[in-house]
Amino acid sequence: MAARTTPRALEKKNECVDDSAAEIERLTQLLNAETAKHSDHSKGPLPELDLEDLQGEGALSRSPHPASDSETASTTSSQNIFPRVSSEEADRQRQEIVQAMQEDSPLSAYVRNILKKATDKIEEKWKTRFAEQLVEHEQALAQERERSSASVLSSSRLVTETLHGKDDELKAIQELNINLNMQKRQLELDLDAVRSELDFLKQQMDDADDERSSSSAHSFWEKTTDLAKKNRGLAEDLSQANKTISQLNEMIKVMKSKASNLKTENGERVRESKSMVADKNLLQDKLAAMEANFEDEKNRREQFQVNVEQLTVENTALYAQMVALQTTHEAKMEELQAHYEKRNIALAGDMKLLQDQNRLMRNAGPSNQREPVSCNSKSANDGGDRGGTSLVKPTEDKEATKRIQELTDDLLSARQELTEQAEYIVELEEQIAEGEMMRRKLHNTIQELRGNIRVHVRLRPFLRSDGAEGLAENPQSAIRCDTFASTITTNVENPHTFAFDKIYGQSDSQDVVFQDVSDFIQSAMDGYNVCIFAYGQTGSGKTHTMQGSGKAQMRGIIPRAIDLIINCCSELTSIGWNYFLTVTFYEIYNETIRDLLTVDNDETRKHNIRTDNRGRNYVEGLTEVDIDFNQVEEQVEEIVNLAACNRSVDRTDMNAHSSRSHSIFALKIQGYNEAQNTEVEGTLSLVDLAGSERLSRSHATGSRLKEAQAINKSLSALADVFQALAKKSPHVPYRNSKLTYALQPALSGDGKTLMMANLSPTYASLDESLCSMRFADKVSQCELGTPVRQIKSRASLGPNDLRALGVGSAKSSPPRESRRNTFTPGALRKLL
After folding, report:
1. Position 20 in a domain
2. Is the pLDDT of residue 577 over 60?
3. pTM of the model
4. What SMART domains does the entry give (predicted)?
């Protein structure tokens, strides 16, 4: 903002100009008085000669100031200096004076030039300064108006911008005040300079008086004439300066009025600013309340959306399972109905035969009774010729009655036999179930002794996303399952048949699958390293098998496994066992390990696979979550949801929610029994592998292509590991991929491993399903060795020592180590 001249500074300027004018007027009066006295003394009897004749308009004689005592003394001294002369001499002197006044001498010209230059310089300086100050006033006023208009407009737009503008305006006013103070000091300096110049002029005038007193009369009159001319010029300049000063005074008044208006306007603006600040605070409070409500509503909507998605997934799974159950039920109903109809036809034939025989016997009975009477009468009338015939018919009746009785007994015995057979069938079914359980246990024992990887195969039901095959009323599956014989066959012209440890059909639920893998979960409680991994093409149901959806029957292996472990811990707590559970959850995406339970999702953080002093591989820097036995259900749900939110999932041409990474859920189980002096440590690794896919079907490009290549490469490395294990190669390439390197403890023979191969029932995915079955068949032939149980004896330790070792109780979770990140269920809920 440009600097503005204050009224006080203008008043000081006016006082300075008035002082200068008064000083010049005093000097002029002094010169006029001396000139008039000298003229009266020199003329004598010539009173008609006056200074008006010499000076024209008589500006010096019309001076309004009377002569002072000093002037009288000067006149007396001049009478002593200039003696009386004759009239001729006086005429000659007057002519010389007139001629001298008409002609400029060099000294007078020099003095006049000096005075003129000084006067012009002062006048130019003041005019320039006044003009600059006037321009500055106008510019400042214009800028002030523009700033006020801008401030009003901006204040109407946004309160915060108005406050910033007001702050800038206050700063500008402060700067203006500083500039005005600086200008005031500059004007004071200018006033000092003017006073110095006036002192210099006074000194020159004093010097001129000295020279005039010591010089001749001719020089004195020349100087007097020059001073008179200068006096007229100064008088004119003074009048002009007075006019300028009056104009400036008027301008000062106008500026004062404008300044007062601006002050008033500024006060109003300050009050408006205060009211705006109050309104702003009120609006900020309302905005904060609205933001809080918005966040709550947003959280509710997000939770509702998550619930809707979970319900949608669960509904889809339930619908698919319902369709599969309906299809299986219809097939069984058709089979049972055919058997029932066949049996009814046979029973109807037997019943009809018996009814015909019974009717014949009933019809034969009365005729046989009438025939003996007639025979007797005839024999009485005709004689004894027909006696032999009457003896034969009673014998036939007895045989028929006996036959009927035999048939009735046969019917009753057949019915009783059918009832006994039905009961026997039930007993046989129970024996078959018990035998199946025994066979499974014996098979598991044999597999453990052989060290083979157990392979279960699950065929998912049809989904609506399968296209025309899924939308058909009775879709035909490309794969047939024989759950009793544990074989699976492709439904094509040249079928392929495979035999595995367990086959799950389309109608088998999550509960049925978990019942067969629960023995593995129990092994983790016993101190074994257990690994269950789901393998299959994209969209085959791996994530549904491992994680599931919802809180009811659609839950997967992970939440069911934790529930089973918690129940086992609670049961074993009553006999002296105490357990401590720790969970980690991470994924391998493009050969990069990511923590799925982290908060900040820092891409720069690296998680490398290290080996501890016991030779076990582990992933460093992962978030470890303690399982709270009092809130385990909520905590597990939040862990699974948080991992699902952080996991890399995207849409492809083959699956709308395709997992683009391998996820590994690791549960570390530590238990001790103080009475038995025993400590066990088991691990449970639940792996959801990314889906294998063919680029010709997925049409992946860009980042999806890179992901598919990384997935296929890691799965190929896994196949190389199983191939080396099947051939019993001395070198197994675990380090070819981070997936195989992370699964090395489960694949190296120290623990138990189960492969869950998931298949799609569509003909479009038959080639990928056939590849998965061939790979699963190769895996089932791998021998890892006898698993080792991690159990050892330990010295008696107190509770404090147990906390120091990181082992806690199933009833309450102990303090954790400093390297771990502790997340309570509430904290996890906030993260979600």
Report:
1. no
2. yes
3. 0.51
4. KISc (SM00129)
